[in-house]
């Protein structure tokens, strides 16, 4: 007996239920999070900004797909991730740290929109240089926003959990959001981080807490990126910055890019998930425009600071 389509009132055929495209996570990788442009303007409430560490790479992925630049993407860490298109074809683009891209095991382009048929698996592999790659999808990742952002904040726990194998990610309506290859070239260059990271630093506000020798060391010494670095801060190994004043400050506001010096004397550059207050002295601040390169510097990268 031939199956009959479902019927509505009066025997008419019931309308088909639309299937919304989604992504299922085949391989979550070492750390893959949902990120957008973050929760700016809420530091006075104790809420970190969060958002994509390499904002330029995040914006590029969205521009290639015709999304609003604030649409959520996936930020991978070193080992990439693999995603299966469910419920229909999707268009995706991989930017940020260069990595091998494949579609159902066959090579696919990096930095170019790729059509992923329903049931196919797109994989962003291990970064060949840099740390964080970005996987954008037409329509954006449509997880529920928290305080106006879909970003995962590892310090406060706001936003969605980091990806895990088997979870499913809803997608936005590509037609409604304008998703689809944007105007202009269908591929765009991305500036890979330099082999040596040179960061400008604006002195203060707590330079008086350090000896003159420490301030000279800051701008003449060579540091290296520590393996303990994360989305909260770029931790550095190298010469110690000697304090002229011991003890701790009353907690005060911490801006993005603050160069905070804990008691052991090795500075930490605060990144997107940094705490909004702290009691260790800040010897200087790295301007925001330089932080994307800092976010892409792998452990062992030499770091120098120059006066801004």
Automatic annotation (TrEMBL):
Q: Which Pfam families match?
A: CT_A_B
* Positions of the Carboxyltransferase domain: 44-308
Q: Which SUPFAM superfamilies does this chain map to?
A: Cyclophilin-like
The entry's keywords: ATP-binding, Hydrolase, Nucleotide-binding
TM region positions? none
InterPro entries in the cross-refs: CT_A_B, Cyclophilin-like_dom_sf, PxpC
Official protein name in the record? Biotin-dependent carboxyltransferase family protein
Q: Which organism is it from?
A: Streptomyces albiaxialis
């Amino acid at each position: 007996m031939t199956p009959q389509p479902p019927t509505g009132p009066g025997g008419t055929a019931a309308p088909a239920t639309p299937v919304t495209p989604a992504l299922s996570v085949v391989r979550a990788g070492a750390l893959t999070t949902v990120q957008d442009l973050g929760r700016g303007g809420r530091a006075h409430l104790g809420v970190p900004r969060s958002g994509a560490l390499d904002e330029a790479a995040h914006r590029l992925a969205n521009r290639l797909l015709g999304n609003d630049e604030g649409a959520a993407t996936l930020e991978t860490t070193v080992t990439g991730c693999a995603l299966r298109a469910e419920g229909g074809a999707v268009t995706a683009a991989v930017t940020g740290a260069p990595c091998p891209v494949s579609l159902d095991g066959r090579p696919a382009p990096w930095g170019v929109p790729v059509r992923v048929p329903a049931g196919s698996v797109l994989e962003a592999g291990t970064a060949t240089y840099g740390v964080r790659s970005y996987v954008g999808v037409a329509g954006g990742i449509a997880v529920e926003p928290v305080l106006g952002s879909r970003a995962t904040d590892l310090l406060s726990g706001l936003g969605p959990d980091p990806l895990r194998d088997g979870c499913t990610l809803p997608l936005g309506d590509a037609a409604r959001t304008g998703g689809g290859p944007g105007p202009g070239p269908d591929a765009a260059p991305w500036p890979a981080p330099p082999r040596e990271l040179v960061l400008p630093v604006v002195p203060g506000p707590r330079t008086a807490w350090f000896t003159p020798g420490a301030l000279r060391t800051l701008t003449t010494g060579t540091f290296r990126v520590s393996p303990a670095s994360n989305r909260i801060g770029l931790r550095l190994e190298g010469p110690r910055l000697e304090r002229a004043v011991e003890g701790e400050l009353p907690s005060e506001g911490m801006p993005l890019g603050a160069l905070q010096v804990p008691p052991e004397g090795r500075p930490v550059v605060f990144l997107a998930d940094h705490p909004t207050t702290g009691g260790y002295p800040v010897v200087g601040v790295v301007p925001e425009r330089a932080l994307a390169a800092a976010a892409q510097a792998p452990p062992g990268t030499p770091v120098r600071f120059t006066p801004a």
